[in-house]
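Retry 2 of 3 after timeout on previous attempt. Resubmitting structure tokens to design endpoint.
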């Protein structure tokens, strides 16, 4: 009898709670003043349009995860290299059981079935716009990007029942207008920079190594091995070391292009393959027309430089073209949460992963940036070295002309300010800027600056403070956050990379080239460490700023203009233009 009474009490409490969500007063959860620049309201969203809502539940133990990350990533700590397992990481990322139950009850009150991620921290539901508007007390609209013609379905504000606020970190897609574009500049098919050096001449690199003079005109895998002192190093195919690249936004690695590139520049790799992992129904279309310049670049250099290290392509669907006149389901979500959800649920991960995508930090809600950044921290705690491109627009838009610059705040005031990039600004990834020429100088397009979301992490306190102390008083005052996470952390060659694309050879440049280059060097270091019985380097930055900098070439010339300014100058010590110098030096300091 007592058991029956308890069951009835539970049912009454549950049903009352379910009804109370609709009765509870709504309170604004997130809002923005207006869409970011170039996004224009086009029309009300169709009530039948299907949204795939991603609900992020709070992770109360994430500060403990961060503590573990610092300990296993610090070369001076006794736990250095003692990486967490998948199960240990998930325990730190799990929401409180009461939160899971509360959100499930809220969704059940609308008759919605939800899917949970492995650690329970992400809830996914598919609902029509009409129901989403009722649940979130909002109105969705179709927005059009005036420069690209893209369409997305978003809102500028949404609310939740007040009783849910402590149980939901955020819900997307709502207020996020980020496009997460690939960082690669215009493809140059026929024009190469002028180089008067004879084909047979060489240049002495920063480590005393000889580099073919032709590398000042065309970058190839051989050039990068020469410049970064990795000539003759052979990686292992069987020691357990792996490398991965992440591909988004319909960017596909064309296998014919890859083999064509290998045949000319990495003959030993001809006929070799890679593993493709599809995330959220991500594809790898092999038609010539579907070949992705970004994906081809990443694969040809990351896979070519590290051959025969086992390699993986992670292809994630997200943000496809959307036709606002068709009432059919379209996924207009961002891709990172899906990618992270998969990676954190996987038992086996590559030691090194390169990503060349991002967008303006201010187009990403701060709550989302924090959540995704913590996901990157979790991968670091599991021993993964993550490299991200720093962006291709200097300190913001790449325009030094004050009359034509387009760097304005998105807070309704339209204040001129430097525009940092995300995920480059996340303190738990290694951000890679760009250099050009030999001797190297900072590339003018190389993204670099200071986050407005993330405070400067302790590992770079000394280096960044030293740089700021050298600036003249008042330099760019009010344009950037001097207390923010500074980036890039390193740089590497980033222009005039020869690639095979849609069956032809041509040149491409951007920090999309430098990120897989640096990742490949780190993968070689990890290969050497693993062959010697050591662990991979994991999250790189505490090591880079305390020990690894000994293997870096200090770039002291160049600057990264933008936002109506000349940007930050390269100088002695850390600045927005540090470069990887030599593989053997890095290996020795690891």
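Retry 2 succeeded. Sequence:
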């Amino acid at each position: 009898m007592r058991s029956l009474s308890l069951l009835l009490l539970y049912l009454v409490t549950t049903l009352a709670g379910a009804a109370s969500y609709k009765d509870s007063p709504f309170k604004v959860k997130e809002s923005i003043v207006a869409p970011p620049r170039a996004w224009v309201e086009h029309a009300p969203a169709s009530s039948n349009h299907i949204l795939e809502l991603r609900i992020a539940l709070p992770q109360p133990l994430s500060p403990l995860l961060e503590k573990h990350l610092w300990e296993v990533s610090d070369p001076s700590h006794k736990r250095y290299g003692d990486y967490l397992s998948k199960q240990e990481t998930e325990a730190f990322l799990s929401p409180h059981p009461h939160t899971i139950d509360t959100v499930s009850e809220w969704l059940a009150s609308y008759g919605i079935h939800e899917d949970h991620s492995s650690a329970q921290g992400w809830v996914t539901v598919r609902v029509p716009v009409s129901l989403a508007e009722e649940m979130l007390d909002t109105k969705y609209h179709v927005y059009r990007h005036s420069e690209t013609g893209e369409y997305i379905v978003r809102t500028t504000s949404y609310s939740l029942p007040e009783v849910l606020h402590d149980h939901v970190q955020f819900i997307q897609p709502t207020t996020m207008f980020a496009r997460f574009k690939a960082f690669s500049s215009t493809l140059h098919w026929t024009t190469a920079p002028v180089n008067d050096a004879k084909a047979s001449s060489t240049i002495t690199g920063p480590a005393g190594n000889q580099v073919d003079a032709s590398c000042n005109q065309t970058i190839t895998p051989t050039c990068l091995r020469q410049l970064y002192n990795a000539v003759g190093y052979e990686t292992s195919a069987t020691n357990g070391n792996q490398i991965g690249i992440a591909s988004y936004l319909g960017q596909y690695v064309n296998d014919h292009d890859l083999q064509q590139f290998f045949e000319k520049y990495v003959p030993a790799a001809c006929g070799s393959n890679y593993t493709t992992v599809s995330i959220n129904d991500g594809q790898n279309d092999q038609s010539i027309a579907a070949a992705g310049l970004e994906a081809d670049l990443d694969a040809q250099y990351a896979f070519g430089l590290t051959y025969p290290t086992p390699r993986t392509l992670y292809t994630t669907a997200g943000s496809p073209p959307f036709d606002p006149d068709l009432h059919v389901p379209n996924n207009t979500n961002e891709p990172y949460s899906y990618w992270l959800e998969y990676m954190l649920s996987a038992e086996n991960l590559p030691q090194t992963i390169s990503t060349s995508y991002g967008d303006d930090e201010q187009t990403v809600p701060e709550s989302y940036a924090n959540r995704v950044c913590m996901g990157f921290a979790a991968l670091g705690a599991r021993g993964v070295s993550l490299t991200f491109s720093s962006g291709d627009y200097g300190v913001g838009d790449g325009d030094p002309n004050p009359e034509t610059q387009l760097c304005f705040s998105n807070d309704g005031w339209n204040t001129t300010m430097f525009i940092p990039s995300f995920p480059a600004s996340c303190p738990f990834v290694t951000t890679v800027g760009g250099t050009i020429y030999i001797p190297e100088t900072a590339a003018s397009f190389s993204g670099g600056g200071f986050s407005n979301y993330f405070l400067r992490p302790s590992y770079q306190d000394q280096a960044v403070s030293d740089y700021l102390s050298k600036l003249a008083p008042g330099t760019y005052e009010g344009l950037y956050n001097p207390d923010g996470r500074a980036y890039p952390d390193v740089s590497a060659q980033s222009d005039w990379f020869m690639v095979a694309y849609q069956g032809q050879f041509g040149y491409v440049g951007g920090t999309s080239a430098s990120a897989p280059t640096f990742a490949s060097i780190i993968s070689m270091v990890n290969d050497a460490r693993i062959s010697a019985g050591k662990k991979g380097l994991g999250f790189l930055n505490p090591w880079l700023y305390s020990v690894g900098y000994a293997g870096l070439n200090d770039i002291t010339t160049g600057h990264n203009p933008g936002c109506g300014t000349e940007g930050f100058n390269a100088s002695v010590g850390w600045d927005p233009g540090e470069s990887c110098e030599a593989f053997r030096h890095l290996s020795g300091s690891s």
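Attempt log closed. The first helix runs from residue 2 to 23.
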